[in-house]
Amino acid sequence: MKCLLIGDSMIKYLKEHLSDNSFDFDLDIISYPGATIESLARKFSALKSCYDWVLVHVGTNNASLDSVEVILQKYRSLANTILLYNPDASIIFSSIVPRGFNLFQEDYRKTAFHLKDLNKKIVEINDALKKLCFDQEAFFFCSCSNTSWDGYLGRDGLHPNKRGNALLASCFRRSFKSCISTGKKISLNCVGGAFHLDSQNSQHYHLSLQAMVVLLCLNRSCHASFWTQTRPTQTYGANFSLNSILCQA
Fold this sequence. Notes:
disordered C terminus, Ester_Hydrolysis_Enzymes, SGNH_hydro_sf, alpha/beta, five-stranded parallel sheet, about 250 residues
C-alpha cells in the first residue's frame, strides 16, 4: 500500500517524525511552501506515483484570502483532481492549525483583534471541511486543532516549532492508521448505464458524486474501488442514471 502526505510548509519538517518503520505501508511526504489549495491541485499532474491514500494538509494560506464558501469549493476541486490522477485513492483532509501572535512583528499585540477574527474563521473552515467529509462519505477528516496550540507554534505564530512538528506528525500517524484500519472497502460497478454498489453486508452507501463523475470521464464502463466509512444510520439509494450524473459535472 502506498500513501502520500502532501501539503504546504506546515509539513516541511515532518519526515524525521514519520520516517520510522512503524508503518506497514510506504509513505511519501511532499511539501510545497506557500501552497494554496488551488496551487496544490496543479501539482498532482507532475507526481509520478499513484497512491492508495492521500492525506492533505493545505488551506492555511487561503484562510485570510478567501471566504469559507470559496475555500470549500476549492477543497472539492482539489479532491476531484486527486481522484483524476489517483482513481482508487481515499482522501483524508486535515484541519487547519490556528494562528498565534507573530513575535517578529512590531507591536504584535495590536493585531489581537484581527487574530481573534482569523482564528474564528479557521474554526468555521474546519467545521465546514469536516461536514464536507462526512457528507461525501468517500472522504475522511483528520482533526489537528482540538488540542491547544499554545507553545507549539514558532515565533512567527504560523509554523509549528519542534514540539508542534511532533504533535502534527503524531496526529497524522494516528489518522493514517485509524482511517486505514476502519475504512470499509466497497466496489462500484457500472452495469447497463446504472451504478450498483456491492458490499459484504448489502447495505447502501453514499459516494461522492464528483468522484463518480471523474471515474466516468476516465472510463465509461468502469469498475472502480473506493474506501468509505460505514454510516448505517442513514440509507441512500444506490442506482444512478448515467446521464443524470454526467449532467452534474
